[in-house]
Amino acid sequence: QRRVREAVVSTQSTGNFMMQNATDMEISVLKPDTCVTIELKHDDKLNEEFQTYVQVALLYTSMSGIRKLRLHNLALPVSNSLAELYKSCDVDTMINSVSKRIRKSAPQKSYLQKSEGAAAK
Fold first, then answer.
1. How do residues 56-85 score in pLDDT, each as one tens digit?
2. Which is nearest to 89 in space by CA: 76, 74, 73?
3. What integer pLDDT is reported at residue 121 of this predicted model?
4. Is 69 exposed, middle or buried (0-12, 13-18, 19+ CB in 10 A)?
5. What letters, b where the CB count within 10 A reaches 16 and e where it falls short, cover 37-46?
6. Dihedrals phi, psi of 103, to nearest 5 degrees
7. What pTM did the predictor assign?
8. Closest by Cα among 76, 80, 83, 63 to 10
9. For residues 80 and 56, what is the distance between their CA atoms, to the nearest angstrom?
């Protein structure tokens, strides 16, 4: 489950998971290299004097059958300057996230299939 400040909402998530409601992600297998990307958007003006906080809770069952809870807390700086935001962002993660979004939104047909379909009309 993910929880953010009132003015911040999670808008889009990518990764190998299933969602049956707006907040809970179900992941069948969790490995050290499992990656989930959550895009955050702010709906209200954020005060630059304060940080905004994100909390993610992971509830899982270990291999021995013990239920465990792992919490991740993240404090994010607030700024109106893109240069300041760029200093605190992970560029590799941003490029990975953008490329996954482009790949997901790309058409399923190849250029050759499209041109053949257009030629048949």
1. 888 888 889 899 998 989 888 888 888 887
2. 76
3. 47
4. exposed
5. ebeeeeeeeb
6. -65, -40
7. 0.59
8. 76
9. 25
Instruction: Tell the residue number behind the tokens 């955050």, with chain if given.
Output: 40
How far is residue 22's CA from residue 111's CA, in Å, rounded to a whole number? 35
For the record, the structure tokens of 91 come out as 């560029």
* Intra-chain end-to-end CA distance of the chain, in Å: 49
The count of other CB atoms within 10 Å of the CB of residue 106 is 8
Spatial separation of the C-alpha atoms in residues 20 and 10, rounded to whole Å: 16
Name residues whose C-beta falls within 8 Å of residue 40's C-beta, 6 or more positions apart in sequence: 4, 8, 9, 10, 11, 54
Q: What number of residues does the chain have?
A: 121
Residues near 8 by beta carbon (within 8 Å), at least 6 away in sequence: 40, 41, 42, 43, 46, 52, 54
